[in-house]
Amino acid sequence: MAHRVKEGYGWNQDSPMSLLDKIREDLKKSMLNKDTEVKSTMRLIMAEFPKLTVPITLESGKKTTRIKKPEEITNDDIIGVIQGLVKSERILLEAKKEETSEYLQILKSYLPKMVTREEIVAWIKENIDFSQYKNKMQAMGTIMKHFGKTADGKVVNQILKEH
Fold it and tell me: CA-based, 20 to 30 A from 60: which of 50, 101, 104, 143?
């Protein structure tokens, strides 16, 4: 049974709207349209925001953190939150021996399009000189820094092991 994300929900990194604004807008829309699955998913994402913190040093010199203000939350912060929720859902689905869920599809619709294995391999061939590294795995940081959250670390790791 294939799950499809309802029309009008989801986010695209080319969108002029920030991911935070899109999630808030979609929460309102889902409440008006009585889309309980989307509404629950938006609330679950937003419930993770208190985990987004900024390190600060108190007057006493003690280091601590504070919760990020809404204007400090970046798209990358939210993408990280959603990727964490996707990972948890995949583990849960694996345990239930299921392929996908509506919740997982909704979460994925808010993630940037992931680069393909072929795109990663092509970029590595053009930009990475393995003679500069003691071993190939040391190039992982450079590759992940270039692709950011659009590359799956497991895929990059697998490519490096194969080449």
Answer: 50
